[in-house]
Amino acid sequence: MSNAIAIILAAGTGNRAGGGVPKQFRPLLGKPVLLWSLEAFQRHPDIKDVVIVCAADANLQKMGLANSHEYVVAGGRTRAESVQNALKAITCEAHTPVLIHDAARPGLRQAMITNLLAGLADADGVAPSLPVNDALKDISGDHLQTIDRTPLRRVQTPQVFRYADISAALEDTNLDIVDDLAALEKAGKTIKLIAGDTRLHKITYEEDFAIVEQLLSPPTAIPRMGTGYDVHQFGEGDHVTLCGVKIMHTHGLVGHSDADIGWHALTDAILGAVALGDIGDHFPPSDPQWKDADSGTFLAFARQLALEAGYTVANVDITLICEAPKIKPHREAMREKTAQVLQIPIEAVSVKATTTERLGFTGRAEGMAGQAAAVLTPIHKPA
Ligand code: CTP
Ligand code: MG
Q1: How far is the CA of 178 from the centre of ligand 1 (A)?
Q2: Measured between alpha carbons, how far is 380 from 310 in angstroms, rounded to an integer?
Q3: What is the mean pLDDT of residues 294-302?
């Protein structure tokens, strides 16, 4: 279609919100309130032009919009007068859809624009609305009266009409109206209410800034977790390397690299958290360059991959499974080494050990097993 016109009302003084600068020019999550709606309309494929109603003043200049005269129309004393000024400034067909929106409602989504325009197929006016959830009381008389809220709706903007309908409706009213739909109601036109959006909350008072900021903040990205498991067989040798620490022992662990089951399990846990395969994918045992390799290289590599994927290691938990050697005397050294490689605080590293009560391959001291869990959190990028 691509022929609809959007009018953004930004000519108010924002008295109730206070704060010196009118609310529509104040920053919200890194950009002026007005820009949120402007960008939403500009992004939508069905919107041909956007008209901003406001004085072409210093506030617009700061946003780089001061000289786009084809877009900026001076406001009126009332909201309805501001709408009239915009309608007069537009040249379009009688049936062109016109969306009228409060700059004070920055949470406009693309789907809302689409749904409103679609609604115009079988109505003369379409607006988003929400039910009333609070109890309602009439305080005008001597006694409180409870009002049945079930038939009541809160109506938001944008509201969409055909150009000729809304122009005529506003001409006929005395401008004592709360929204543009009211003008159309008086003209006896068909009106359709579609599902509203809590994100379209209007900034009226200072406290609304915090509410809208909360509504429009990107959802906190979810942390990710991964687990890893590794086994190596005991063989010839006089030491084992566990979590980077060399421990003298009656046997060694057989492996292509240094056979550090703690760090191998941990490397897999980190790779698992970002779903980037496993240690064997990145360091194939068939590749001679990893012969006797320090497993710290694998661990540091997994950390790097996670960083590139936008995640940082929050905490890790390693369990070493064997009858011997005794792990406890070396536990603090293992935590420290692991924390160093991952560049995280030692408090974020746990190393535990258990026997399997002489059962199974670990119980028979045929080999050792290690398992690990890692939690990764998204790296927060400032807006
Ligand atoms: N508006 C307008 N022209 C007016 C009055 C209001 O364009 N003469 C716009 C406001 O900028 C706002 C929207 O209409 O985006 C809704 O109005 P409201 O929330 O009442 O804003 P203000 O009138 O600016 O605020 P207040 O009533 O607290 O002074
Ligand atoms: Mg007002």
Answers
A1: 11
A2: 9
A3: 95
Answer whether 100's CB lies under 8 Å from 83's CB.
Answer: yes
pLDDT digits (tens, 9 = 90+) for 107-141: 999 999 999 999 999 999 999 999 999 999 999 99
In the 8-state DSSP scheme, what is residue 188? Answer: T
Q: How many CB atoms neighbour CB 324 within 10 A? A: 14
| End-to-end CA, the chain | 33
Per residue in 237-251, pLDDT (tens digit) is 999 999 999 999 999
Evaluate whether 318 touches 351 at the Cβ level (below 8 Å).
Answer: yes
Distance 24 CA to ligand 1 centre (A): 9
Residue minimizing CA distance to atom 8 of ligand 1: 78
Q: Report the chain's mean pLDDT, rounded to a whole number.
A: 92
Please name the residues in contact with 151: beta carbons below 8 A apart, sequence gap of 6 or more: none
Better pLDDT: 220 or 234: 234
- Which residues touch 167 (CB under 8 Å, ≥6 apart)? 87
